[in-house]
Design a protein that fits this description.
The protein is α+β, with helices and mostly antiparallel strands. Helix content is 45%, strand content 12%. A hairpin with a 5-residue loop joins strand 3 and strand 4. The longest helix has 52 residues. It is rod-shaped and about 100 Å long.
Length: 142
């Protein structure tokens, strides 16, 4: 019986100060790591958008090889709008990495703009990030 009372009276555990220190350390680690993961995610979306722009550029080159000119667009269009002649040369439909959905043909986050209005023998493909900053411009001059 005395052993049981001694065990019950020997209170072992963490003090309040120790708990506060541990929670503080975890908070500092979270504050350091979360922005790094957000930055990595943003960079991966940008890289995927650039890859999509290069795929569109390749599709335009395939179109040119079969038709001896690039598709005629009267103004700049975004992938997913009136670019069906280009999209038929894509092996798979492209999805916007920022939204996870198919491109809608607007200047949405991660949009890809296609311009062939400068002539039948040239094109420009521009990829944009989630803040509509230009990531890459690919043209026949490159």
């Amino acid at each position: 019986m005395q052993k049981l009372m001694k065990i019950l009276n020997d209170k072992k555990g963490f003090t309040l100060i120790e708990m506060i220190v541990v929670v503080g350390i975890i908070g500092v680690l979270v504050a350091i790591l979360v922005p790094r993961f957000t930055d990595i995610r943003s960079k991966s979306f940008a890289k995927a958008t650039i890859a999509n722009a290069k795929t569109v550029s390749t599709a335009l080159e395939l179109y040119y090889s079969e038709n001896n000119n690039y598709p005629t667009l009267t103004s700049a269009v975004f992938l997913g709008s009136s670019t069906s002649s280009i999209e038929s040369f894509l092996s798979v439909p492209l999805s916007n990495p920022y939204t996870g959905n198919a491109y809608t043909g607007s200047s949405e986050s991660g949009g890809i703009e296609i311009t062939t209005a400068t002539g039948p023998d040239s094109f420009t493909v521009t990829a944009y990030d989630d803040k509509n900053n230009s990531l890459i411009t690919i043209s026949t001059d490159d």
